[in-house]
Amino acid sequence: MRKKSKIIIINLFLISIVFIILVFVLFDIYKENKIGKSNYNVQGVSTNLNKNEEKKYVKEDVLLEYKGYKVISKLEIPKIDLETYVLEKYLEETLNVSVVKFYGANPNEIGNFCIAGHNFKNKNMFRNLKNLSIGDNLFIIDNKKGRVEYEIFDIYKVNPKDVACLSQETKGEKQVTLITCTNDSKERIIVKAREKV
After folding, report:
1. Are 160 and 190 a contacting pair, CB within 8 Å?
2. What are phi and psi of 87, to 5 degrees?
3. Cβ pair 158, 164 in contact under 8 A
4. Residue that wins the pLDDT comparison between 185 and 21
5. What predicted TM-score, i.e. pTM, was given to this entire model?
6. Is pLDDT at 49 greater than 90 in this prediction?
C-alpha cells in the first residue's frame, strides 16, 4: 500500500510539473501571437511605425551632377517659380553656381536640412524668398526617398552672426531651413518649413 501511495504521489508530482510547463509554453505562444498581431499585418510587414516611416513618397529621378558639382537634391517652390538643384558642398564656388547644403540633416531625413543660397537674380537662386508667406509649400526631391512636401511655418530676419536657425532640435520632424541675404547683406532672411502631414 505504501508503495502504491508513493507511485501516486510521484505521478501527481510529474503531472503537476508537466501542467506547469504546458502553461508556460502556452503563455509564451499567446504572448508571441499577441505581439505579432499588434506589430505585423497579414503580409508580415510592420504596421507599428511612426507617420514619417509609413508615408509613401512619389519617386523622381534627380540629377547626380550639375555644372560639375555633386547634387544631393532638388528644391521646388511653386509660388516663386523656383526649381533648383541643391549642391552637396558649401564652398564659395558652389554658391556661385546654385544653392547648397549649408548644415544639418540630409535631404528628407529627420532633422533640419539647411540650404543656403545667394539672392542673385539668376533663376536658380534665392532672390524671391522675400515673396514667400507662412503656409506656402515647397518640395525637396531626392533619389532616396522621392518627392516630399513641406509647409512654411516661419519667416524672419536675423543678424548674420545668429545661427539659431541651424538647430537640429526638430522633435522628430523633417524640416527645411532656407537662408539668404537681404539686398543690403546686413541681415539674413530665414524661411523654415516642416514636412506636410
Report:
1. no
2. -85, 150
3. yes
4. 185
5. 0.72
6. no
